[in-house]
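Q: What structure does this chain adopt?
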Amino acid sequence: MTNKIFFPQHPVEPLLPGKGKNTVKSPSGGTSSFQKLLDTQINQDLKFSHHAQQRLKARDINLSEGDLEKITQAVGKARDKGARDSLVLMNNLALVVSVKNNTVITAVDEENLKENVFTNIDSAVII
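A:
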């Protein structure tokens, strides 16, 4: 066994606050495969806040696996465009989603959509 220390070919640079997105760049200049894998894992698990779960239950809203996949894809599209909090409109249902946390914050059905005002959103995705 030898006591050799190997240094990476490319120096590791610290992330500076306020300097854009915190992504890992590969030596070729693109996003690393680790970052892509991490993004994929984060994007897969759509969560529902306690408030959203209560709203879905109270309003008797049932989401199928297909619906969940459509919502997840919509959140991914919003993320790709840089959205943080998005309104997702699907059929007669509106969901306010924290894109950053991949979490549905609230759900509103058709009956409660009329004359409703959605605040603190920076984007809308219609699916």
